[in-house]
Amino acid sequence: xxxxxxxxxxxxxxxxxxxxxxxxxxxxxxxxxxxxxxxxxxxxxxxxxxxxxxxxxxxxxxxxxxxxxxxxxxxxxxxxxxxxxxxxxxxxxxxxxxxxxxxxxxxxxxxxxxxxxxxxxxxxxxxxxxxxxxxxxxxxxxxxxxxxxxxxxxxxxxxxxxxxxxxxxxxxxxxxxxxxxxxxxxxxxxxxxxxxxxxxxxxxxxxxxxxxxxxxxxxxxxxxxxxxxxxxxxxxxxxxxxxxxxxxxxxxxxxxxxxxxxxxxxxxxxxxxxxxxxxxxxxxxxxxxxxxxxxxxxxxxxxxxxxxxxxxxxxxxxxx
Length: 320
Known about the structure:
5-stranded mixed beta sheet, single chain, two-stranded antiparallel ribbon, alpha+beta, globular
């Protein structure tokens, strides 16, 4: 088992991150918020030049790892475009991408995107999607809008393949969230090194160091879980869906801790649009709340596992 991305995938991720920076970096999100109809034109052509939309994450391990690295780079810039969802598009439907939703009050950050798009529920049911008009501006909705769903699959045939679609969508979405956690930590490290208090940088204070350490442990834990879940998808393990749910639960829990600490160390200015952290934090919310938040994800995972627990590195070991 190897949970590290290949050198080629890492290089692809760095190239994508540099390309997004050259296209505007943080300004991409600001411009998209001002003009939501430009979301696709701001981001999609940049990634198309890198061959992003030609990747087939289901086709080979190399392409799956490249897709994960791309999602992480998109998360770093909080790119205002559903990159993971675009990469998860099903091969047998003429759509631009696929979102994971719940059957009750389905929603996704698709406001301002023409599509067409499809959706898949956690039990593998697929739908064609018609986004409703945005009820709120991007400033408060982060491009999330309600969805009207039209069923695609009339029977249970191919349920295993559709469950694999759900797994892929959850895993790549968490790689995007991981990129946001990377950025939040980088911004906060820079802030506490530059900000002076009582004649010395904030980073010199032991309490600040302890908080940063707690946040970094959470972020690093998500990185390990993300690598393991990606390997599980690569290996086509029967437990891959469980691993994806476990990753999502861990990522959502870690995001709560990381963003709380990063906001605390930035102080009140961390909630102002003058700071990049505010933008990254705000646009991380759809990934943290959809298709399910922390409690909902925990409930689904618990119901699936029952009393058997997760299969992983220590499966079959006794700790009595």
